[in-house]
Amino acid sequence: ADPQDHKFSLQEVLDSFSRCLSESKQVYLEHYVAGWRGLVKFLNTLGNVFAFISKDAVGKVKILEGYLDGDSRVHYLTVQSMVQHELDNQLVDVSRRGAHPDSGCRTLLRLHRALRWLQLFLERLRVSGQDDSTSVMCADAYNQSLSQHHPWVVRKAAGLAFCVLPGRTAFFEVMNVGPEERVVSVLGEALPLISEVHRITEALYAQHGLLDLP
Ligand SMILES: CCCCCCCC/C=C\CCCCCCCC(=O)N[C@@H](COP(=O)(O)O)[C@H](O)/C=C/CCCCCCCCCCCCC
Questions:
Q1: Cα of 146 to ligand 1 centre, how many Å?
Q2: CA of 76 to the centre of ligand 1 (A)
Q3: 139 C-alpha to center of ligand 1: Å?
Q4: Is residue 151 one of the residues assigned to a domain?
Q5: Has residue 123 been placed in a domain?
Q6: In total, how many domains does the chain have?
Q7: Rounded Cα–Cα distance for residues 57 and 60 (Å)
Q8: What mean pLDDT do residues 71-86 have?
Q9: pLDDT tens digit sequence for 171-188
Q10: Could you list the residue range(s) of the whole structural domain that residue 69 is in?
Q11: What is the ipTM of this complex?
Q12: To pair with 167 at 20 to 30 A between CA atoms, which of 6, 72, 84, 124?
């Protein structure tokens, strides 16, 4: 059996994001991608309604895995080295789509924007009460972040998918970290790590004018 093909565990996602940052605040691409692989595993437990989202995320993870395993892998050790390498070698379509539709920079930017959604969603979950709706929390987080980068049809489909999210108790169970108090404490550990990875990536992309890559 594939050793990666076991049950989703929030703890593993947390471990991946905690390994992302080097002492000098470089973001290791390998662990960033591993974090997303774990999140997609979670998404896949939620049913076919989420398949279109999972398919897009998996496609982006595979593109980045291709760089991690490819001939230029030495340049894809960190997000910082990837940005430097792709910019120095004109491997990024900066103003309109052209010869490099699958550059590492534009692919990672899509996941980076989704990481902001995740950050907002997990923070809502962490402070939520028994009667709060995961669908509402998810939609609120999406509307405040990722939705502004999506066309109407994607926003509509995402909105419909959110409606069938499991309730808070079932959702916590799929997270597979134990009782509610433990989920809340793991989320409390995970969020600063995820926020720090997001903050560093955002600053790097802003510094190079890459936040609107087509
Ligand atoms: C830790 C446990 C609790 C939370 C677990 C959450 C698990 C979420 C796993 C994956 C999230 C999906 C990430 C989606 C990446 C989307 C990237 C994107 O924006 N792609 C669009 C643009 O790409 P290009 O066309 O420019 O290449 C693309 O158009 C998107 C298509 C699919 C729709 C994306 C909707 C995203 C909604 C937010 C995720 C909702 C997941 C709900 C599950 C709780």
A1: 8
A2: 23
A3: 12
A4: yes
A5: yes
A6: 1
A7: 5
A8: 98
A9: 998 888 899 999 999 999
A10: 10-90+103-208
A11: 0.97
A12: 6
Q: From ligand 1's centre to the CA of 192, what distance in Å?
A: 21
Band (pLDDT 50/70/90 cuts) for residue 2 is very low
Question: What is the domain-level CATH number for residue 32?
Answer: 1.10.3520.10
Give the residues surrounding ligand 1 with Cβ less than 6 Å away: 10, 13, 39-40, 42-43, 52-53, 56-57, 110, 113-114, 117, 138, 142, 146, 149-150, 154, 158, 165, 175
Nearest CA to ligand 1 atom 19: 110
User: Per DSSP, what are the bridge partners of residue 93?
Assistant: none
Ligand 1 centroid–CA 57 distance in Å is 6
Within a domain: residue 139?
A: yes
Is the overall model pTM greater than 0.90, yes or no?
yes
Two tokens, residue 137: 């929390």
Residue at 95 is within a domain: no
Q: Which of 8, 12, 19 is nearest to 197 (CA)?
A: 19
